[in-house]
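We modelled the chain as a single entity of 474 amino acids. Its sequence is:
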Amino acid sequence: MKIIGRKRECHEIERCVLSKRPEFVVVYGRRRVGKTYLIKEFFNRQFAFYATGVTGEKTAGQLRAFHTSLKEYGDTEKTIPQDWYEAFGRLKKLLCDPAVHREPVNDRIVVFLDELPWMDTARSDFKSALDYFWNTWGSSCEDLLLIVCGSATSWIIDNLLEGKKGFHNRVTRRIRLLPFCLKECKELLEHNGLSLPEPQIIDCYMAFGGIPFYLNMLDPRLSVSQNIDELYFKEYGDLHNEYHILFNSLYKNPEKYTAILKELASRKCGMTRNELASVKEIGGGDGLTKRLRELCECGFIRKYRHFTKAKNDALYQLVDPFVAFHHNFGPDNKDLSSWMNYVNTPGYNAWRGNAFEMVVLNHVFEIKKALGVSGVESEEYAWKSEKKKPGAQIDLLIDRSDGVINLCEIKYSNDPYEITAEEYENLQRRSTTFQNETTAKKSIHITLVTVNGLKRNKYAGIAMNTITGDDLFG
């Protein structure tokens, strides 16, 4: 099958294939983002050995599954390994066989261990056995490419990427998979037979985000709104309970993670760490620091700075469309049982305006590309006036190293957006307030980001740049 997008990730995997040293590669990211699919398709499902952890199984069940995989790849032992040391010992013997499958480009022995965190059950010797396997043999086997993968990001970070013992400095490469951008979403939908206009793809992204697994569920015979109804709002829908399944699979104790997301969903512009720590259900300490880092790594939230405040006053903001959609319209919302009946209501139009801002925040690279400054270094900020009257708030500032700040105004409209006299005055006020309060020395370019472009009138000239929905597709 065809790999959609993922050019950077495929380039990294190719580098590992061409490497002249043993490679221990960690592929990680949130559930349903396509980690397993990427690795299997890149290698055409041909491995020297492949095994996957089994959800919900204890040590005996994990070893039984591993034994089954060993037999599939040529192991002749009939008994199930007694522990993980024996299991990895058999794997080593299997990989040393001259008949072992090697990938054709660089004659590599490719081993893929999928859903690794599930293999590490309570009171098992899995981590120490894997560590022993790598340190005593794998790390000196120049043609070995070991790829491990898992959705339980907390386990991956704690044990493989930032662990202070065992695997510390053992991992040679890390590949982080994030959701698709709009361009990749469009390519996947077209591959599946859905030729949607770009504004409808944006609507789809607002509900499902760039998650390939969700997008693959869309029925080409139905409209976007019908698909949302069938998949999410119907009790039998495949995504009706996905939110809870998602976080139970990612984190051992998901309650505090979902509490963070619930708070951030209620504060569109984000919250500081201290503000989050003051919420009873969330708490503070090192635990909060760890959870925020993990949510950032999965792409559920982003950490960003207020333009005029220090780094330790950073804000955390929800940027995952599916999570935001759930907190707006989830099963607890008894007033909304049908998306089709909600479409084109005032509430729906207000939601689209807020959801489009999240789309834009996830496509800053595409905005810079449309502005012709993709190669210019920049930092992205938000800003809120310290004064209540006249107040001003800017959701996205692109502070460029070439002496320009793009002050981005994000507007959703079914038609070309028209700047009225009132909006013209508001834009002038925001720009002036920002310059006065921040004493910014750079040139301020008001940049309008809207789906269907800008309607030309006598006020349109205030927008020095216009970014359209087409531009967001790169």
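As a brief sanity check on the tokenised model: The radius of gyration is 25 Å. Residues 257 and 380 are 25 Å apart (CA to CA).
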